[in-house]
Specification:
about 300 residues; alpha/beta; Arc Repressor Mutant, subunit A; D-Maltodextrin-Binding Protein, domain 2; 5-stranded mixed β-sheet; globular; LysR_subst-bd; transcription regulation; LysR_HTH_N; transcription; sequence-specific DNA binding
């Protein structure tokens, strides 16, 4: 199956009709149909059955679809890399980070790096940790920064710091009179915090059990920054990482969570891919930026 045939097959699988697939690929319907028919002829079996104007995948199509998607992703990555080379972007540093370090650490690291290496192109991606791992494996990122060090064995996780939790209170909330809150203070309150099966939720759950309290968020979030609007709207207290500069948001009172758990900030690399010299220099800047950000946070607390 050639690259164009692969592209057409995946588009039809995702779109379900020739019309929608042709629109996705910006080609004519007859051209797409011809490529599809030619592909089936070469393979020696049908990929789709025509049922009431839609294309229903055959068992054979379903069998090869996952492999086709992996091949397509690899080709896309190759195209991006060859484009970078053609445009002279051989000095390119790709960093993927979960949202808190992307907002709190990378701006400082990138600023320091750019001052010393103005001609090296920087590329930042904000993503959940599962996507960061995939990007490191595929070569779409050389460095990752995440708030978890429980990674697969092919990913190196260097812990460069740790961070606790903060409580975001709606303006005028009675608990605002306290300079520090504990988990016990939050019992019975409407909480906005992380969904289950995430590192922060696990750490909070263990700490709550150890302290003999029960916490149950009434509003679950995937990323801490999304709590801001909910707290500002008065939907509850945000129990989130203390890494982000929360005091810059209006309509919030920020209080540290005392006697609470901490979780790691980890610098991630692939064990199977060598770092370029530029990657290594950026890694040093991320370490320094993390140390500086955590130091600033301790002073402000």
């Amino acid at each position: 199956m050639r690259a164009r045939q692969l592209e057409v097959f995946i588009a039809v699988m995702r779109a379900g009709t020739v019309t929608a697939a042709a629109r996705m690929l910006n080609i004519s319907q007859p051209a797409l149909s011809q490529i599809l028919l030619h592909t089936e002829d070469e393979l020696g079996f049908a990929l789709f059955e025509r049922v009431r104007g839609r294309l229903r995948p055959t068992p054979e199509a379903l069998e090869i679809f996952a492999d086709a998607e992996r091949l397509s992703a690899g080709l896309d990555g190759l195209r991006r890399k060859t484009t970078d080379l053609r445009l002279g972007r051989t000095g390119l540093v790709r960093v993927a980070a979960s949202p808190p370090p992307a907002l709190a650490i990378l701006p400082r690291a990138f600023t320091a790096f750019r001052a010393q290496h103005p001609d090296i192109l920087l590329r930042s991606s904000s993503a959940p940790i599962a996507a960061i791992v995939d990007m490191l494996r595929d070569g779409d990122a050389s460095l990752g920064v995440a708030m978890d060090d429980r990674l697969p064995p092919d990913i190196e996780a260097e812990v460069i710091g740790s961070v606790g939790f903060a409580c975001l209170l709606p303006a005028g909330h009675p608990l605002q009179r306290k300079t520090e809150l504990t988990l016990a203070d939050l019992v019975g309150e409407e909480l906005i915090s992380y969904r289950g099966n995430t590192r922060p939720a696990d750490e909070l759950g263990q700490a709550a059990r150890a302290q003999g309290v029960t916490l149950s968020p009434s509003l679950e979030i995937d990323i801490s920054i999304s709590a801001v609007g909910f707290v500002q709207a008065g939907l509850g207290i945000g129990l989130v990482d203390a890494l982000l500069p929360w005091r810059q948001f209006a309509g919030l009172a920020v209080r540290p969570l005392g006697h609470g758990p901490e979780f790691p900030i980890a610098l991630l690399t692939s064990r199977t891919r060598a770092l370029s010299r530029a990657d290594e220099m950026m890694r040093d800047q991320i370490r320094a930026a993390c140390s500086a950000v955590l130091g600033d946070g301790n002073r402000s607390a």
